[in-house]
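So, can you check this record?

>
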Amino acid sequence: MRAFRTAGLVFCVALTGAGAAFAQQGETHGLGPNESYMMATAGASFGDQQAATFGAEFGEPITKHVHAYATFNYFDNLLNEAAENDLANLSAVLTRLTATPWVLSGNDRGLSFSGGAKYVMASGSPVRPYVGAGPGVINIRRTIYESARGEISDEVLAVFGAPDGAIDADKEGTFRPFAEVLAGVGVAAGRTYVDVGYRYRKVFKTSEPLTFSQFTVGVGMRF
């Protein structure tokens, strides 16, 4: 919940900064057909967990309405419900076997890279809605904690594995392909560029379904 509150605070700061940037612009106009942009983003991911997410994006125009984009994102926790249930069941089994309390919890940190195309509407306007899609790859690293014993990731994964299939238990980090669809609104004011967006991602090659949404606010510059 601390990470989720942090994301909310970053949202507010980003919006405040965007408003100040707009107020300082003497001239407001839309992103030109031959202009690129670069921005930093912050927000929250919503799936079986709610957690903070941060990233960066670069965009390059291909045609008047089509822009290519490349995005890097950090996800604080993508642990799915199946993995959470597995850890709860394992806690109960270990408690019975050892006659001492076991409380296991997990965290799936994610690092992703994706790229694709956006169809940008309202050409020539400072407010430009868009939709888009693209493929990507995500690296997921699972960390497992026990309330009294600290981190015991290697021990748990070596003996019990990862039945949900989101990670390979014998690897420190697991790469999985995914696809994303996105929608949002970009706003241009002078050289300032602000983006409010939504993305839906589906991760492939997992035993249990792994999907999550992401809401972000981005602030950057165009050039």
Summary: Strands lie at 37-46, 50-61, 66-75, 104-120, 127-146, 150-151, 174-189, 192-203, 210-222. The longest helix spans residues 2-24.
